[in-house]
Amino acid sequence: MYKGASYKIWSVLMVSPFVIFFLLFWALPLGLGIWISFHNWNVSAGNLGFVGLDNYKMILTSGTIYNNLFITGLKNTLYFVVISVPPLVLIALGLALIIDNLPDKFKTIYRTIFFISYSISVTAVSAIFLWLFNNNGGFVNNVLMSLGMKDAVNWLGEQPYAWLTILIATVWWTIGFNMMLFINALNEVDSSLYEAADLDGAGAWAKFRYVTYPQIKNVGFFIVIMTVIASFNLYGQTRLITNGGPEQSTNSLIMNIQTSVFGMNQLGIGSAMALLMGIIMTVILGFQYWLNYRKKD
């Protein structure tokens, strides 16, 4: 009895830090955000009273300023998700496959080279790409004009160049994380499966399709989910590189939520926007789960 009680006490002690931090940094802020979203909450004046669903109605009613902010930010964010997720997953997989086939003495070097950019802050990354793609005197434009191009490309002031700049910066910055996850998954593939495929005369594509892909597809699905979530939270690159331009075409949803809270002094509406964003993300991720497990059935 004493030994069993001791195990229970230790189990509670081991689990309690997670429970405490979960409540403090996830459950409590979420509950507070939901509560604030039902109030006319002014950042400077505080709670001005319960308004029920009025904040949500203002956001979802066509023609209101909050509806325009929400819809514009949502469209821009969804567009970025669509253009960023495929390269972030496929290029990471390609790099992982290349590194996996390198001699062992080179693997660590190239893993470090491709992963090191992930450790750089978004501020530094944005400064690098502002220098590279600056319209006047930027490195990329200087190279292109030295090769014979007559006019400089307005990378940050025209579309689709602004989105292309954001995409290139994001891929360069974050590709290393997905690559490392794929490398770890490839390391878990049984080498005897490749040996059997070689005996059957399988080529590189056949080995990937029938050996590699089935073994890493669960990790690949996890990477897709994490990449969608990360792309949905687009903020730093567009804030620091394009500042939402040109003509608010790169304003992400988080940027417009920030505008509602700090620019318009409406914390209640900003909280409602954030919750609607969370619901949309949950629906999209739920649909991805449904597609993935439907294929298994």
Tell me what the structure shows.
The chain is mostly helical. It has two domains: 1-37; 53-296, Orthogonal Bundle (MetI-like fold). It is built from twelve helices and two strands. A two-stranded antiparallel sheet has the order 1-2. The longest helix is centred in the first third of the chain and has 36 residues, at 2-37.
Any idea what the CATH architecture of the largest domain is?
Orthogonal Bundle
Q: Determine the CATH topology of the largest domain.
A: MetI-like fold
Strand adjacency order, main sheet: 1-2
Major sheet attributes: 2 strands, antiparallel
Terminal Cα span: 46 Å
Number of domains: 2
DSSP E strands, number: 2
Percent helix range: over 70%
Assign the CATH class of the largest domain: Mainly Alpha
**What is the residue-mean pLDDT, rounded to a whole number?**
91
Strand content: under 5%
Structural class: mainly alpha
Number of helices: 12
Q: Tell the overall outline.
A: globular
Q: Please identify which CATH superfamily of the largest domain we are dealing with.
A: MetI-like
- Extract low-pLDDT stretches: none
Strand-and-helix sequence, N→C? HEEHHHHHHHHHHH
Instruction: Round the Cα radius of gyration to an integer and report it.
Output: 24 Å
